Amino acid sequence: MGNKIREIRESIGLSQEQLASETHISRVYLSKIETGKSKPSYLIAYRLSKRLGKPLEELFFNLDGNHGLQCVTETCY
After folding, report:
1. Does residue 63 form part of some domain?
2. What is the pTM of this model?
3. Tens digits of per-residue pLDDT, 33-62?
């Protein structure tokens, strides 16, 4: 999930500081999410998805037309 957030954030030209500020979290916490050292709560993941303009599912899954959904978190249900 963290790599996906970073990838989307960078593709739209946002710094960590900007995204963190706009989603009401610290830059340090966002960095930990992006590097996989912390897992966001559902509320934080929702805020990030809204600001990044992506569905929440896209942050949790790789959407691959050839292989379907592939989980990008440690545990998928």
Report:
1. yes
2. 0.78
3. 999 999 999 999 999 999 999 999 888 776
